[in-house]
Amino acid sequence: MGLIKRSQIAGMNIHYMKYSLDYFLDAQERLGFESIELWAGAPHFYLDPEVYEDCKTLKAKVRDHHLKLVEFTPENCSYQYQLAAKGLNFRRSLEYFKNAVRACAELECPQLSTNSGWGCFDETREEAWKRSVEMNRMVCDFAAQYGITVAMESLRPEETNLGVRIEDVRRLFDEIGSPNLRINVDTTAMGVSGETLEQWFAEFGPLITHFHFVDGTPYGHLVWGDGCRDLRQYLQILKDNNYEGYLGQEITDRRYFSDPMTHDRRNMKALEAYFD
Hints:
alpha/beta; TIM Barrel; 8-stranded parallel β-sheet; 8 strands; 14% strand
């Protein structure tokens, strides 16, 4: 039953972090992926406040594997750079994300993935909230100069005390107020918060331009079939809401790290049943 196009499925490289970037690109081409979302973290892509990887070489490799780079996702959950940093790290994090924008532009990728960042749990939430709004606005304004859209996602409560629920993301979105800011729905964060796809579409509609679209229990960023989500139902909801954007396969559970290609093959097989 045709509910989605193959080109909408964007393979992602986080669970290939024990392998080379070349291995990841080879695997995506062999498995029939047409689009990819690049997790911009070492060892696949080096990025810091001062330098970043050679984008010309990477762009050629993506092209040579007949792939399209549709989303650029700088690592910001495990690294020290994040979107509500404070003190000196605010300035260093801002430069980090500016370099992410520059790399995104050089790679001719149209969209950058972000989130709220997080505050220290021993400070008031509002202090951290103000920093998140300020930095996100500055990143969006900088990205606008390069014609890049910024897509903000929610996180789980273990990851942040800021952008966790729909109402948090709505408030951030409104306060940031940037015309190039859009929404990236993470199905794991959504599930952990007890929310639904229908609620996200009701709140944001066409402002949703990307998904981290994975199975879960609701925890875990899992291969489709390893969690408890109804894939067909999820895809039908996307179709009913006329969603034609990309679905990033943000598979992060470490059970997949030793043999990522085998698990990507299982994942693609589950999705292929619903291709046009």
